[in-house]
Amino acid sequence: MGIAQESNQYELTVNDSKYVISGSWLGESLLYVLRERLGLYGSKNACEQGECGSCSVMMDDVLVCSCLVLAANAEGRAIKTIESVAEGSQLSDVQEAFIDTGAIQCGFCTPGLLVTIHDFLDSNPEPEESEIKEAISGNLCRCTGYGRIVEAVQLVSIRRSGRDI
Amino acid sequence: MSLLEEGIASAAGVGISATRPDGKEKARGDFLFSNDLSAEDMLWGQTLRSPYPSAKIRKIDFSQALAIDGVHAILTADDVPGENIFGLEHPDQPVLAFDIVRYVGEPVAIVAATHPEVAKSAVDAIYVDYEQLDPLVNSQEAIEAAPIHPEGNVIRHLVINHGDPDAVGNITVEGEYEVGMQDQAFLGTESGIAFPSADGGVDLHISTQWLHSDRDQVASALNLPEDLVRVTLAGVGGAFGGREDVSMHVHLCMLALHTGRPVKMVYDRNESFLGHVHRHPAKIWFRHSADESGALVKVEAKVILDGGAYASTTSAVLANACCFSVGPYRVPNALIEGWGVRTNNPPCGAMRGFGNVQTCFAAEAQMDKLARALSMDPVELRLLNALKSGDTLITGQKITGTAPVKEVLTSLSEHPIPKGVKGDLLELPGGTGRTTDNSHVKRGIGFAASIKNLMFSEGFDDFSEARCIVVDGEVSIQSACVEVGQGFVTLVNQIVEETLGVSEAVILPVDTSIGSAGSTSASRQTWMSGGAVLKACEAVVNALILELQNENGGEYEKVGLNLVPKDGSDSISIAVALRGRNFDEHVTHRHLPTFPLDHNGQGNAHVSFAFAAHRAVVDVDQELGLVRVVEIATSQDVGRILNPVQARGQIEGGVAQGLGLALLEELVLIDGKIANANFTDYLLPTAMDTPPIEIAAFIEQPEPGAPFGAKGIGEPPVISSTPAIVAAIRDATGFELNRVPIKPEDIALNGL
């Protein structure tokens, strides 16, 4: 197989920036292109079959596993990755809560979980514990047993509502 | 305990819930894991692996593969520059197979190419002519079978013969048990990058658990002096034992040295399952006997661990499985016989819990059986036999440290039990799949307890080095201790704050430019490398005092974080006194020596012991075989808690892995081949599977000789959580259930 024969050129919009992808193999996943061609290594590759959620990104405001999206098919879609979650040096409230509650151990699942949880809390700002668990059940974590992650989501919900801890 | 109950941590120092210094980078996605590294002009490596569990290699032809555009190198056993053999405890495994392959997934050839897909194409284009042999896949048959390796099939045979061989109690229970092959399944697969260097050496950046062990094995295989193999830790996405062995290390270095270019390799999930060792599957027979009061009189056991094709840490895993087979109980007489054997199954080695897991599952089932035979409450029986400080283990070793087994058991049994079966579908077995309703659901409660040895055993020279460098009051710490997520980096900051009053230390790159810290395993790094960092910081304080005394003539005494002149003049804080001064203190920390076991399995082979107990509450739908774990409660002997949130994180994470072994996780082998080497079929617990984990008590009795009195806490949560869940399912169903993981059919079709 020659990579060059199957190459083409397309454009991706990632975190509001446009990137021209050229000289690539059209079979590359969005995850591969984000990581290895754009240097956006925050999206992770733990299973590359849509089971672990480590590569979660938003595509036109829909949560997707970037390992299951062909990069060339993402042309014209607005892609948001973990790298867009903080504003400059200012962490998002979910990122802060992850650090505060001890929700991060090795940290490999963390970016995917953060993208997932931001999306979830946007639609369900005051979730029940069981709803939180269901919402993150597509993101595997091998270190934490999820307890601190659930607590981080609860902490954000409380902080956003202005209620006391 | 939890942050919502405790409030936000604000101080630092040992004992409070300090937050991770790498938390911000990890939350931003900026933290560089080993597979996030790249370099100019980099090539991608790929591995050709054996498709057969046992075969002769007649011929390898890679001429077509080498002709593919973009392929820069294809290397085989002929290209290994040094010894084509490696191994964590004992070298017995080829870097690349040269005449025989002994398991499915054994590396045969390696490729470097310009793109990972080109490298995969090249691997597919390599032709290997194999002559298939009959694989040996039954661990019991392996003991007597024709050898599959020049060193024979029995990697270790261990007998523990303690007390009176003729002693026997009136009440006897017997059982056979099996444990399936669990995988560490860390999320960040094996990955790394190797750079050839101008001096003829190589720089390897890799995720691992033990840099120096890697360095030594790589240097031997490359035929390079150790100082030309420099290993640097790259960000580790979890480990749990699975990164203790060399995987791609030598391959990467060979390809980099051969091509003269940096080479990166990333295993995909399937290859990761083939590329690291697993938890040993076990076959276990037990006979327990007690007198009519319930006091244990004798325990007999036979334990067979399937080591797979190569030794890895089988010998030490078997020692743990046998030494602690009877659990945290006083047993005056014991005859334990264990075999760690070689088969054509995938190699097995270290996984969190390291041998204690397998026998604990079986022995705790025996304790419940014995309680039933005695018509005793299972907790009462355990309390009656609970080890305490001063008692003797079946290895003849007297416990000189703390052993609060009674406290662990009592605090857990007093913890409130959650209320009855709920009606919410999300909270029932089957969950939102709506496969059940609560009219079929039965609740069960189970209890189990465990013992785990801390640090390396059997005479291993176990040490860790650390340096504390002060430049104008700024503190840097150097150690080769690997952070795998457990929070050593947090502890370093806490120790520096505790000893020097400086709130943040720079942690220098973790590499082989300092001596070994040993492995991040065996619940040892807080004791060993935490101890080394503590000593290095204390050495700085002593050097500072000497310097002040030389300058000022008077004597100083350290009081808290201040230095108080004995002449009554004003005291000065250590942090302030360090400003404008430079120090560099390099120390080595060792635990007390251990000794080999003798021919009867007797000896002071271990350093210290940690105890835990777990209570599981489960809801079971017997008709569908569905189980929901409602709650796990635990008490754990921790010595002293250094960081409550991190301690809780270790416990919750460990319990989830114990739950995985009880209900979900098994590498299914068909004729030696893993049938489910992916996350669709190898099931890890999700947030929906993992129940709330209640910490009934941290039992804090400072351990003599341990830095800060702290015992390692990483492994106990994974050991007795599994048998507690199984006991709860037995309680709900009345079934024997002598094998883990328990599958739906084991319940739904039980007795059919």
Fold and architecture overview:
The complex is a heterodimer of chains A (165) and B (752). Chain A is an alpha+beta fold. Chain A has helices at residues 30-37, 93-101, 110-123, 129-135, 147-161, and strands spanning 7-14, 17-25, 56-59, 62-65, 78-80. Chain A has two domains: 9-81, Ubiquitin-like (UB roll); 93-161, DNA polymerase, domain 1, CATH 1.10.150.120. Helix content of chain A is 32%, strand content 17%. Chain B is α+β, with helices and mostly antiparallel strands. Chain B has 19 helices and 29 strands. In chain B, the strands form seven sheets. Chain B has a seven-stranded mixed β-sheet, with helices on both faces. Chain B has a six-stranded mixed β-sheet with strand order 7-15-14-13-8-29. A four-stranded mixed β-sheet of chain B has the order 16-24-25-28, with helices on both faces. The longest helix of chain B has 28 residues, at 525-552. Mean pLDDT of chain B is 96; it is low at 1-10. The interface between A and B is large, with 67 and 76 residues.
In terms of DSSP E residues, the strand content of chain B is: 25-35%
CATH superfamily of the domain at 392-451 and 609-752 in chain B: Aldehyde oxidase/xanthine dehydrogenase, molybdopterin binding domain
Low-confidence stretches of chain A: 1-5
Number of domains of chain A: 2
Largest interface: A-B, 67 and 76 residues
**CATH topology name of the domain at 392-451 and 609-752 in chain B:** Aldehyde Oxidoreductase, domain 4
Write down how many β-strands of chain B occur, each being a DSSP E stretch of 2 or more residues.
29
CATH architecture of the domain at 392-451 and 609-752 in chain B: 2-Layer Sandwich
| Shape, principal axes of CA atoms of chain B | globular
Spatial arrangement of strands, main beta sheet of chain A: 2-1-5-3-4
Instruction: Encode the helix/strand succession of chain A as letters.
Output: EEHEEEHHHH
